[in-house]
Amino acid sequence: MNSATALRIFRALAGRYPEALEPDRDRGSSFQVLISTVLSAQTTDRSVDAVAPALFSRFPTPQSLAGADIGEIEEIIHSTGFFHMKARHIIAASRILARDFGGEVPGTMEELLTLPGVGRKTANIVLAHAFHIHDGIAVDTHVKRIAGRIGFSDETDPDRIERDLTGIYPRELWGSVNTLFITHGRALCTARNPRCPECPVRRECRYFRNLKKG
Ligand code: SF4
Known about the structure:
The protein folds into two domains: about 5-20 and about 135-210, Helix-hairpin-Helix base-excision DNA repair enzymes (C-terminal) (Endonuclease Iii, domain 2), CATH 1.10.1670.10; about 30-120, Endonuclease III, domain 1 (Orthogonal Bundle). It is built from twelve helices and no strands. The chain has helices at about 5-15, 30-40, 45-60, 60-65, 70-75, 85-100, 110, 120-130, 140-150, 160-170, 175-185, 205-214. Helix 2 (about 30-40) packs antiparallel against helix 8 (about 120-130) and helix 9 (about 140-150) packs across helix 11. It starts with a helix and ends with a helix. Bound molecules: iron/sulfur cluster. Iron/sulfur cluster binds next to helix 9 and helix 12.
């Protein structure tokens, strides 16, 4: 896809979902953003929001979470799913923050990737929400689906999809590409039964063109 088409798609989605470009809600401290993002794997923001107050009132800092009893953490975060692994990750990450980063969340991709449970998607989200840095495009399930359907990428690996998207869009749009694609994925381009006839980018979309051919 050429960059003129990519920009047309961006503008069409921005026109359809202006709310996706509004400033982000306050997500708390950088530590809370990091831990919440790790907990959000394979679940919804709502389910993380439901456990976050209990978790952060009991363990407000990396130092306190580093020394937590894993059973207690598992009990608090149980409803977010994959709670054994998530509890292990957030305790181990907190230990590293306390030991190596003076209790602060680091603000670079390279450093964030040293933390357990943190891959590029999580690191991109933490950089964007806690530091307003766009070092890449967080590729979640919505971004992945839409990039594939429209034809931005033929890859299935999120890191390669990110590489394709960042190769086509200028850096200043990376954060907005993420929020627009997520909003579009929830509103119209859903995993099952995308509502293509109502879609503002259907003329540019490979999936829609193939539907018409079929
Ligand atoms: S035309 Fe359909 S598949 Fe393509 S982006 Fe729009 S909703 Fe998704």
